[in-house]
Amino acid sequence: MKTLITAFLSLVLFPGATASVHAQGSQWEMLNNEAMSLYQKGQYGRAVMVAKKALDVADKGVGPDHPDVATSLNNLAALYQAQGQYAQAEPLFKRSLTIIEKAVGPDHPDVATSLNNLAALYQAQGQHARAEPLFKRSLAIREKTLGPDHPDVATSLNNLALQYRAQGQYPQAEPLLKRSLTIIEKALGPNHPDVATTMNNLAALYQAQGQYAQAEPLFKRSLAIREKTLGPDHPDVAQSLNNLAFLYQGQSQYPQAEPLFKRSLAIIEKAVGPDHPNVATSLNNLALLYLALDLYGQAEPLYRRSLAIKEKALGPDHPNVATSLENMADLYRKTGREKTAEALAKRAAAIRAIRR
Q1: Of 59, 63, 159, 345, which sees the most CB atoms within 10 A?
Q2: Single pTM value for the model
Q3: Domains plus CATH for the chain?
C-alpha cells in the first residue's frame, strides 16, 4: 500500500526577486509574487499561466541571459514539478542553472540553490544517481563560500541526508542530519522553526529504522517548537501532528494517532482551503488509519474526496492520483469489490507507466 506523508522539507525554492533594472521590473515582480501566492494556495494551473507571463516580461525586458529570466524559469519549473510534469520542468531548471552560472560564476551561492532545485527534481523521480552529485556540489559550494557553520550549509546537509534516506542509506544520513541540527541550533537558537524542521527529519530517519523510542521525543519537541513560534494553527504544526500520528499508527497506537490526524486535517483546511492538495494528503492519511482499524465505511468517503481534490488540482495523470487509486483499490479488495479494485489498479498502473 502506498502512503503519502507530508513532505519533510520543501526542496524546490522560489528565489526572491532580484533587483530588476528594466522598465517592466515592477510588473515582473508583481507577476512573480502572484505566481507564488497561487502556488501556495494549490492553484497550480493558474500559477503556471502567471509564471509564463512573468517569464515573457523578463525575457523581453532584460534579455534571455539575465538572472531575472533564471528566476522565472526556476519558478515555472517548480510549478511543473508540483504537478508531476517532470519532463517540462527539467529543461527549465537546466536553463536557469546555465544562466546563473554564466552570470555569477560556478561557485556562487545562487548556483548552489539552482543545483539543489535540479537535484530535488531528480530525487522526486527516484533518479538518485543524478540527484546525489548535484546535492553534493551544492553543499561544497556553500561550505566554500559561506563557511561550514552557515544555515545554508545546514540546509544542504539536510537535503543530502534526505537523499540518502530515500535510498535507505541510513548510516550515511544520520551524521549529516545531526551536523545540520547542530549548525542550525547554534546559528538560530534552540527554538527556531528551522530547528524544528531538522529535528523532524532526524525523527523520521529513526522512524524509518523502527527506532520509535528515539523518534518520538524529537517529533514531540519539533511540534512544541512550532506551536510556540508559529502558533497552533500553522501548516507546519499540522505537519508535525501528522508525522507524530504516523509514528503512533506504526506502533498500532491508534487511539493516540486519530486525534492528531484529525487536528492536522482541520488546520490544513483552515489554512489553505478545502481544495488544496495538502488537504487531500491529510484526508488520505486519516483514511489509512481507518483502513487499519477495518473502519471501511469511514475510510471510503475520505479516499473519494482526496482523489477528487488531487484530480482537480494536479490533473488526472499525476503520480499522487495513482497513489489514491492504489489506496482505494486496496479498500475495495478488503470489502469484496474485486472488479472495481482491478479497474482502479489498472488506471493507477497506467499513470505510473507514463514517462515524465
Answers
A1: 159
A2: 0.87
A3: 25-211+277-352 (1.25.40.10)
